[in-house]
Amino acid sequence: xxxxxxxxxxxxxxxxxxxxxxxxxxxxxxxxxxxxxxxxxxxxxxxxxxxxxxxxxxxxxxxxxxxxxxxxxxxxxxxxxxxxxxxxxxxxxxxxxxxxxxxxxxxxxxxxxxxxxxxxxxxxxxxxxxxxxxxxxxxxxxxxxxxxxxxxxxxxxxxxxxxxxxxxxxxxxxxxxxxxxxxxxxxxxxxxxxxxxxxxxxxxxxxxxxxxxxxxxxxxxxxxxxxxxxxxxxxxxxxxxxxxxxxxxxxxxxxxxxxxxx
Length: 262
Prior knowledge:
The protein has 2 domains: 13-175, no CATH class; 178-258, no CATH class. The chain has 10 helices and 7 strands. 40% of the residues lie in helices and 13% in strands. The strands form 2 sheets. It has a 5-stranded mixed beta sheet, with helices on both faces. The chain is an alpha/beta fold. A hairpin with an 8-residue loop joins β4 and β5 (81-90). Residues 10-185 form the Transposase (putative) YhgA-like domain. One of its GO terms (molecular function) is double-stranded DNA endonuclease activity.
């Protein structure tokens, strides 16, 4: 079971899940935050959502949050490669995360083995598909869970490479650089994912809330105007800016007219 106090479904999961149901948004997210060559070798046409759901009974029937199957097309002397990305969404620290990720990976491989011909699986050159585990964390407290699986094993320092091990990628929303988050938001918006507007705004607010609202907390009118200006430049709609800054719609329209022409 998850660590005490960690609910099986995090409160902000739905917004992120809805956002990442868009293959385009998911791909832009990977390109923004995963510094790996393979990220740039895939496109939307080779990104799939498996129909299978991966559920762990030991975790109160918790289902894997986001699973994508990806295909890197054959290039030069490199063969086509099928692999998976497993992403878990967390708003609290789960100290059992490496164990959970291991179980999800085993479930994905188990499903692959069930759907492959026996003769092919018995071949000497048969290989399981790689799985890239990622944790997207939007909690305010630092992420203090083990980052590798072997760190969960008692006395692991006594052993060498014979122990099972993997390391998951951690994306900590609240500790991202402001520019990085803004670039992601702009990239997704520029790609035309208009139906994701609300969720993009939510992620922006989660990641930059303490930075964009410093002026508001000080109660300065100029601080509110500065925030409104930033949000207008990001292309946010006026009702959202009214709610965020508490400025009147007329004032925001006036600020908009003062902005330099794009």
